Amino acid sequence: MTMVRTMLLALLLLVESGAHAQITIKPEIIDLWPGAPPGTGRPTGPERVGTSGSATGAVSNVTRPRMEIYRPAKPNGTMVLVIGGGGYFRIQIGGAALPAARQLLARGYAVAVLYYRLPGDGWNADAPFQDGQRAMRILSANAARLGIRDDRIGVLGFSAGGHLAGMLATRGGDPFYAPVDGVDERPAVPAFAGLIYPVVSMKPPIDTTQTRQKLRSLPDFASRVSVEEQVSSTTPPIFLAHAADDRIADVEHSLRLFRAMRTASRPVELHVFPTGGHSWGVGAPGSAVSQWPALFMRWADDAR
């Protein structure tokens, strides 16, 4: 990403933050890989940021997987890896990840915004899992330097980013790539996971999303990539927020994961709002779905 684009995204965060002057204008950039990332596919051309319609602020053609690190003025010791959605063909940075980062920072959470490789750009279908897993390990390895607790690194994902967050929560310990250095000895399972209007299940009839289309080449994907099928007795606490009228990712996605967590006797909290549709980010002021950030942060404060 060019310095100009980095500053534009950081300034977007600053503008949305209003009076929250504690938000860092220029984030720290951490590349995920010391050399070429694992897997296959090398998209050509520059990274793109959408400028119209639903693509406004969405990033695609990621060739440099990385994190942007934002630190609060009054840290509470917890880091949240924020993962924008977009069907694994783009990442909603401006419309979801940065607005959520702003609210988290205002409450003392450190934030890492993830720029991950996309199967829709020609990368291998499990590239997002590789990048998400590596990001968690880097945060763990740098916990002391970043002023965070190693046991308080969570994830927050939207739509397809919610799917990625769910995969980290349930399969973060799986070998998605061969170790490249000592960082890969660190854990990759988050302490807690927030999934906002997530894609969860690859099983019909509920999933007709782009997420499913981009992952269907993976072996046994209908089971191994359905998050609800991977819940175990060690799955960390999960927070779910969904709108009942979501026509892109049916609310049944969250309901299936909620039931799986309950069956496994794992901590889970679910909020279903009557209206909101899909891709609402932090929610328009005054809308029902705009309640979720406060609910999530209150929950995350105590999630164990």
Task: Explain what you see.
With 304 residues, this protein is of the alpha/beta class. It has a single domain, classed as Rossmann fold, CATH 3.40.50.1820. 31% of the residues lie in helices and 16% in strands. It has nine helices and eleven strands. The strands form two sheets. Strands 1-4-7-5-8-9-10-11 form an eight-stranded mixed beta sheet, sandwiched between helices. The protein has a three-stranded antiparallel beta sheet with strand order 2-3-6. Helix 1 packs across helix 2 (93-106) and helix 3 (127-141) packs across helix 5. It is globular and about 45 Å long. The termini are far apart.
Give average pLDDT, whole number: 90
Give the tally of β-strands. 11
Give me the number of helical elements.
Answer: 9
Count structural domains: 1
The top level CATH class name: Alpha Beta
Residue runs with pLDDT of under 50 for 5 or more positions? 1-24
Based on helices, strands and strand pairing, what is the structural class?
alpha/beta
What is the CA–CA distance across the termini? 36 Å
CATH homologous superfamily identity: Alpha/Beta hydrolase fold, catalytic domain
Query: Could you say which overall geometry the principal axes of the C-alpha atoms support?
Result: globular
Radius of gyration using CA atoms only: 17 Å
CATH topology: Rossmann fold
